[in-house]
Amino acid sequence: MANLRVPSLQHLARNWRESPVAIQKVLVHLAQNSPNFNYNPLFSAVRDILLFNVPFEQVLEGIRRGVKREDLQKNYLEVLPLIRDHFDGLTPDFVQSVERRYFPVARGLLIPFDPPLIYGVGGRLHFPWFSFWRSNPLADRHLRLFVSVVYDVLLQDPDLEDARFEILDFSAPAPKQPRRLRVIDAREIPRVSDDELREMLAVFAEGFFFAKQELESAPQKPSEKADQKGDEDEDQPHLPF
After folding, report:
1. How far is 208 from 56, CA to CA, in rounded Å?
2. How many Å apart are CA 149 and CA 200, to the nearest integer?
3. Cα–chain center distance at 59
4. Taking Cα atoms as reference points, which of 132, 98, 179, 126 lies closest to residue 11?
5. pLDDT over threshold 80, residue 114
6. Alpha-carbon distance 83 to 34, whole Å?
7. pLDDT at 235
């Protein structure tokens, strides 16, 4: 039996579809073809650069030494110069992590919200959201859904409600082209209405529970039992399909 992970807010937005059945199909496919890596080394690199002022060459060397898979190492090293250029010359007053929060989508479905960090400059609190997908980044209604939910979470926290929310999109404009950084000011993204948001989340929740039921009712192969013993930490933000 494949393991259906509770998605992050960004995964929820990307995998949203018009109908519960379409969402069910996407989530079942993801559960049966789960990727086995994540972008945590890049989040660590951001903290090293911003918080500890680690020299960039030392950050690169840490990736080369610590990441043995050639494809992953190449992927990380493609993103790091964009991160460096974006934060070059920035001297934040503080950098700190943010405790995990949960967004209630439906009864029995709480979506974890894990901002990598926040930082302050000149009295202004900044909340960057890093999107490391190389292709098919959030756009259109999916982007509006994501921004709307994040703002709902931020407004519930007095410490974050005034933060400047930016999405750092590290995707490539075309399959064979290099990545580039696009900074999206979330204030410029139209939010969905409250009624539309409730409807979209209800559709996702129904699709999620359909997918969970389908996977739980599927016969379990002996090889799958062995695989489950080696599951990665579910708290880690996995790379989406």
Report:
1. 41
2. 11
3. 22
4. 132
5. yes
6. 27
7. 37
Whole-model pTM: value is 0.88
Q: Which residues contact 157 (CB under 8 A, 6 or more apart)?
A: 101
**Can you read off the two tokens belonging to residue 30?**
């993801």
E strand segments, 50-139: 94-96, 101-106, 109-113, 118-121, 124-131
C-alpha triplet 110, 113, 119: angle, nearest 5°? 160
Residue with tokens 């389908």: 214
Structure confidence by residue, pLDDT tens digits, 201-240? 999 999 999 999 999 998 876 555 444 433 333 333 343 3
Indicate the pairing of strand 124-131 with strand 164-169: parallel
pLDDT tens per residue, range 127-155:
999 999 999 999 999 999 999 999 999 98
Of residues 189, 200, 149, the one with CA closest to residue 167: 189
